Sequence to fold (96 residues):
Amino acid sequence: MYIDHIIFSLHFHSVLFIGMGLVKIIANRIPNDNWDGILFLMLILGLTFYLFFALKYVYRSPIWKTIIKQIIIFSLYLVGAICAMVIILAITFLSL
Fold:
């Protein structure tokens, strides 16, 4: 029942990590420091559109429902990133 969701999640995260790896490789080859941020922004925008169309295609939802799902997914990622940063900050201060 939930296998389809796991496969979709693994597929999206594979695209995410491949994209991040390519951005890092390309940014290391270009001597200008500004390209790293520009390429990362392009990756985030591209993944936003990719996730929207992937959710729309796989789950066959209306546009408004797909947008709500995408907002929820991005919000959960933001909360997870903030929690990870707080934990890393706490570990860093405790190890001093």
User: Anything to note?
Assistant: The mean pLDDT is 90. The chain has one domain: 3-94.
